[in-house]
Amino acid sequence: MSYLNIKSLAPAHYEQWLALFHGYAHYYNYPVTAESIANTWGWLMNANYPVTGFVAELDGSLVGFAHCRAMPSPLRGEEIGFLDDVFVDPECRGMGVADRLIEAVKEEGIEQGWPIIRWITRDNNYRAKALYDQIATKSNWDTYELKCEN
């Protein structure tokens, strides 16, 4: 019988996390470099940096991760949570891995005193959105990006 365990991300997880991270970047067709990966890993391993991570382990192998952080909400005058990334190995989708990872993020939010946790996903990520619609409320906010280049 397979056993799914959710853990805080730790240095020993690097190689398996890296393989999943490459899968995540590939899914979103986003180029990553050795430098960007080192930055992300460094943030995740730095207890003084606001981003943290969780991993899902199935029978000794990592099959998913979630990264989250505190985010100031000026209108509220308090910090809320932000779920930056959730990724599950395609072979393990439909097994409740994402649900469990998001539950770990929710527990982190409760521990940190965040009143809500926000996240975004691509509009055509239908499978993920089906899960999100079951466990959260879709907001009525649209997301914009402004490039900061000359």
Task: Report a brief summary of the structure.
The chain is an alpha+beta fold and 150 residues long.
Structure description:
The protein has helices at residues 14-27, 34-45, 97-112, 126-135, and strands at residues 4-8, 51-58, 61-73, 78-88, 117-118. The protein is built from four helices and five strands. It has 150 residues and is of the alpha+beta class. The chain starts with a strand and ends in a 15-residue tail after the last helix. A hairpin with a 4-residue loop joins strand 3 and strand 4 (78-88). It is 35% helix and 26% strand. The chain has a five-stranded mixed beta sheet, sandwiched between helices. The longest helix is centred in the last third of the chain and has 16 residues, at 97-112. The mean pLDDT is 95. It has a single domain (4-135), classed as Aminopeptidase (3-Layer(aba) Sandwich).
List the total number of helices: 4
Shape: globular
By CATH, the topology is Aminopeptidase
Strands of the biggest beta sheet: in what spatial order?
1-2-3-4-5
Please give the share of residues in helix.
25-40%
**pLDDT averaged over residues:** 95
Integer-rounded radius of gyration: 16 Å
Strand content: 25-35%
Q: What is the first-to-last residue Cα distance?
A: 56 Å
Class computed from helices, strands and strand pairing: alpha+beta
Would you list the SSEs in sequence order as H and E?
A: EHHEEEHEH
CATH class: Alpha Beta
What is the name of the CATH architecture? 3-Layer(aba) Sandwich
Features:
alpha+beta; Aminopeptidase; five-stranded mixed β-sheet; 4 helices; 5 strands; 35% helix; 26% strand
